[in-house]
Write a structure and sequence with these properties.
The protein is about 55% helix and about 5% strand. By secondary structure, it is mainly alpha-helical.
C-alpha cells in the first residue's frame, strides 16, 4: 500500500521530550481541548475488547492511554480551579509530546464535526447559510490547531491510526459525495475586498480552484501556500518593475528600493518614515516571502491566507503613494556648448 504523505512530514519535528516552554490557553479554548482528549481516550478504549479477544498481553496503546488519563485528570482539576471563561489555563514547561496530544485532540474535534455535517447533508438538503455557519465553526478549530507552538506540529502518532476509521459506517466519504451534496465555502470575493487588479486576477482565481466543490477535499490544506507564493512574487515583481530595478531580489531589492540614496521609492516624510516603510516590507519578505519561496508550508489555513492577501494588497497600495525615481526617468545631463 502506498504511504500517503501527511502535511506534517515535510517539517522537521522536535522530540517529544523537548521542552516547548510555558504554554497557555483561555479556559473556553481548553474546554474544547479537554473534550478532544476525552474523545481520544474513549476511541482507544474501544479496542480493549479486541485486545482481549486476540489474547494479547496488552493494548499497543497502553502508554498513550496512560498519558491521556493523566492529561484528562490534570485538565479536569485546572478547569475546576478557573471558574471564569477567560481565565488562563497554563501548562508550565510543556513538552512537545504533550502538545502533540493536544493537537490530536483538536483535530479529532474537527473530524467529528466534519463527519456530523456529512451525516446531516446525507439526510437531505441543508440551507447554505447553515452550512457556512458550521464551516466557520470548523475553521476556528482548524486555526486553533495551528496556533502558537502547535503550528506545523505533527499530532501524536496514534491519531494517524484513528483518523481513517472515523467515517466508517457513516455513509459516503467527503470525496465520494457529488458536487451538489458537498458544502461549498463562501465565495472568496465576499471575504476580502482586494483593490489590486493583478492580485485579484491571479490569487483569487487560485482560491476559486481550491474552493471548487469538485476539488479533492485534501487540496486546500496542501496547496494554500501556492497562493502565498504567488502574492509574494507579485509584490516583488511590482517593486522591481516600478523602480526599474533589474538584477536585485529579496533583501537586496528592498535596500535599493527604500534605503539606498537616492531611494527608488521616496515617501517624502523624512528618514524616520522611510525607514519604517522599509521595515514594514522587510518584515513581510523575511518572515513570509522567504519561507514560502523556499519551503512547502502545508499548514496555512484559508483565513490566514486571506489575511496575508489583505496585507500584500496594502503593501502594493503603499507603492502607489511614493514618488518613484527610476534611473531611466531622470532628466538627461545638459549638453555642453
Amino acid at each position: 500500500m502506498d504511504h500517503k504523505k501527511t502535511p506534517w512530514e515535510d517539517k522537521k519535528q522536535p522530540g517529544d521530550e523537548v521542552c516547548a516552554g510555558d504554554v497557555w490557553f483561555y479556559k473556553t479554548t481548553y474546554v474544547v481541548i479537554q473534550e478532544g482528549l476525552k474523545g481520544l481516550l474513549k476511541e482507544l478504549r474501544k479496542y480493549d475488547d479486541v485486545v482481549r479477544d486476540l489474547n494479547l498481553a496488552a493494548s499497543p496503546y497502553e502508554r498513550e492511554m496512560h498519558r491521556l488519563e493523566q492529561l484528562v485528570e490534570w485538565g479536569d482539576e485546572r478547569l475546576k480551579m478557573h471558574p471564569h471563561e477567560y481565565d488562563q489555563i497554563e501548562i508550565t514547561r510543556a513538552t512537545f509530546g504533550t502538545l502533540r496530544y493536544i493537537k490530536a485532540a483538536i483535530l479529532l474535534q474537527v473530524r467529528k464535526h466534519e463527519a456530523k455535517l456529512s451525516q446531516i447533508i446525507e439526510r437531505g438538503p441543508v440551507p447554505q447559510s447553515i452550512v457556512r455557519a458550521f464551516e466557520d465553526k470548523v475553521s476556528e478549530l482548524r486555526n486553533l490547531a495551528e496556533q502558537g507552538r502547535l503550528n506545523g506540529l505533527r499530532p501524536i502518532e496514534m491519531f494517524l491510526d484513528l483518523a481513517p476509521q472515523e467515517n466508517a459506517g457513516q455513509g459516503p466519504s467527503e470525496g465520494e459525495r457529488t458536487s451538489s451534496q458537498r458544502p461549498h465555502l463562501p465565495v472568496v470575493r465576499q471575504d476580502i475586498p482586494l483593490t489590486d487588479a493583478e492580485l485579484r486576477k491571479r490569487c483569487l482565481n487560485l482560491f476559486d480552484k481550491i474552493d471548487d466543490p469538485n476539488a479533492s477535499p485534501s487540496q486546500p490544506q496542501e496547496t494554500l501556500d501556492t497562493i502565498v507564493g504567488d502574492m509574494s512574487r507579485i509584490l516583488e515583481d511590482r517593486i522591481r518593475q516600478l523602480g526599474g530595478i533589474n538584477k536585485d531580489s529579496g533583501s537586496d531589492l528592498l535596500t535599493v528600493a527604500f534605503t539606498r540614496e537616492p531611494p527608488r521609492f521616496d515617501f517624502g516624510k523624512g528618514k524616520k518614515s522611510q525607514s519604517a516603510v522599509y521595515d514594514f516590507f522587510k518584515g513581510y519578505f523575511d518572515f513570509v516571502r522567504n519561507d514560502v519561496l523556499h519551503n512547502l508550508i502545508p499548514t496555512y489555513t484559508r483565513e490566514r491566507v486571506l489575511q496575508l492577501l489583505g496585507l500584500v494588497d496594502y503593501l502594493l497600495f503603499l507603492l502607489t503613494m511614493a514618488s518613484i525615481q527610476r534611473p531611466d526617468a531622470q532628466e538627461p545631463p545638459a549638453s555642453q556648448a
